[in-house]
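Predict the 3D structure for this chain.
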Amino acid sequence: MIKQYLLAPGPTPIPDEVQRAMAATMIHHRTPEFSKIFSEARESLKRLFATQNDVLVLASSGTGAMEAAVANLFSPGEKVLVVNGGKFGERWVKISQAFGLEPVQLKVEWGKAVNVDLVEKHLKVYPEIRGILVQASETSTTVLHPVREIAQLTRDGPLLVVDGITAVGVLPVPLDAWGIDVLVTGSQKALMLPPGLGFIALSDRAWKQTEAAKLPRFYFDLRLERRSQRKATTAFTPAVSLVFGLHAALKMMEKEGLERVYARHDRMARATRAAAIALGLKLLAPENPSPAATGIMLPEGIDGDKLLDTLREQMGITFAEGQDDLQGKIVRIAHVGYMGAFDVVVAIGGLEMALRKFGYPVKLGQGVAAAQEILMEALD
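Done. Predicted structure below.
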């Protein structure tokens, strides 16, 4: 028997409490019983997003929420500035193009965060830009972008639309306090659920823009969803079992306390980065790393795909691979959602063993020891 450890940045592990909630007997979604659970979950989501406005629950992946943001805010031919520094920055470009927008791409080297001065420069060169589309945490490169600083540039200008799919529930991304106009996330990351729910919150001025936007929308018409969800129901059939799980997951997070949730993610991320450095490995994002996942460059000559296969098939440990030009060159170790100190210990111990198997001169336990020094903070 090989015990399985899911340590990739989505889907992430699911707690027993959430599994049991999702296994509850199916009920009809137009009933007071469902409405009560749904309403309580939506109130918890408002606290998670740190907003007084509605957080809408969509039966979709996070990409559905990204598409909903574009479809509800803009009109054909409008320019949007897209921070393109990874696979999900590329996704903003593709969604914008699919809806007939004109994306102006601010390309950022993979592994780097966008320079706020460059964002400001682009806004001056293209004063007709109607929105800025950016990731808070670019999952493919494990980079954290300076969303708070970008928001300072947009308070009286274009709408700021943020993909928080590996940020919400990992670190504070307060929509109201920072002045974010749209914030989206998905269920399969920090919310400790299977894939299948998207979440989106809009500022007051973003809601105003939904009335002027001219792009086509039907299933993702956020005006219709808001009217329905304010009545504790949904415009279309919801993912009932996932909503049960969402209710349970949010209760768990609030019981732990959001500040402790954020501190736990930060501690695991710092421990993972310290372990990689102790092993003589380079970080993909050394300057602005995300606390959701750590990208680690593999030594020259090691086939990353084969190493990942060995970890998964012989040790039961699943990391994420590199994408595009990073394919076979990095591993991405997640510390997001239902994960704790000993998941980091397992991750680094497994990485050490795999590296040695592939010929890299590892002193076993060296990375684990570096991680443990930081993880000990939780015992103070």
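The radius of gyration is 21 Å.
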